[in-house]
Amino acid sequence: MFNAQYFRTFITLVETGSFTRTARHLEMTQPGVSQHVRKLEQYLDKPLLERQGRRFTLTEAGRRAYDYGLRLFAEHEQFRHSLDDDALDTGECRIASPGSVGLMFYPYILGQQQMSPGLTVSYSFAFSHEIVSDVLAGRHDLGIVTEPIRHPELNCSLWHQEPLCLVVPADFAGTSLTELMGIGFINYSDGVNHAGALLRSNFPDEFRSMSQFRRQGFTNEVGMVLDAVARGLGFTVVSRLVLETSPWQRQVKELDLPVIEHETLHLVSRSGTKIARRYARLLEGFREQRMRERFGPGDIASLP
């Protein structure tokens, strides 16, 4: 007989790697954990574990049962949350985004949660490929990515644009591409693409590629990249969201450039899934706030 709790116990066992830790986590006895695994093996008519004393490894059937169990509970959670589609002030918000967005969007959502105690926020900071995988697996209802995604099981739509900023140490006095080459470039996950787009537009006669610049370092956390710039180690290009939330913004400065380029943000969700209205309100509220900050309240009505 199918029993979802047997799958829950088995998933926990695989993830903890221990019958003892599983029993403690699920507030069960260790024999109870063993019984759930045996019942699941009987139901599937396949051995799921190869036991070596207190240790175990998964059989092929065990690996497939684990993957199926993850999908099963992800779909269950997605169904449960979908029942609150029409509620604006209640329900869980499961969102993932890169750090460049989340540094400001996550605090904004927390502020909305304070005003609407019925909201629950589950927010993950991740790279775009991780976000896509998690949305497909049902672990997030909505993902925000910096590149358009083409996938038969995903919807992808343009949401918002943030200006890119060329950021240099506060005492940097140069303005030319040659002077930027002299101090070198601080990279991060989207750094080369962002810097290439901005420099190509503003120095069309001189810029060839980012290989012209000496690499002065790399971090996979965009929120930390301005620490290196503040220490005089080089320049970088980040979205305005990152610059405005950085604790080092007084130790760096933005170079004024004639041509503006943007980080374009896209929304991804599973095809055929209706996104709850509370998400639309949060997304539009944040976008309008950013527009007011950039253009003033009198100008946003004319913006797309």
Automatic annotation (TrEMBL):
UniProt keyword annotations, A-Z: DNA-binding, Transcription, Transcription regulation
One protein family per Pfam: LysR_substrate
PROSITE patterns documented for this protein: HTH_LYSR
CDD domains on file: PBP2_LTTR_substrate
Gene3D superfamilies on file: 3.40.190.290, Winged helix-like DNA-binding domain superfamily/Winged helix DNA-binding domain
Alphabetized SUPFAM superfamilies for the sequence: Periplasmic binding protein-like II, Winged helix' DNA-binding domain
Keyword Transcription regulation: yes
Source superkingdom: Bacteria
Domain HTH lysR-type: start-end pairs: 2-59
Stated family: Belongs to the LysR transcriptional regulatory family.
Protein name: LysR family transcriptional regulator
Organism: Billgrantia ethanolica
High-level lineage: Bacteria, Pseudomonadati, Pseudomonadota, Gammaproteobacteria, Oceanospirillales
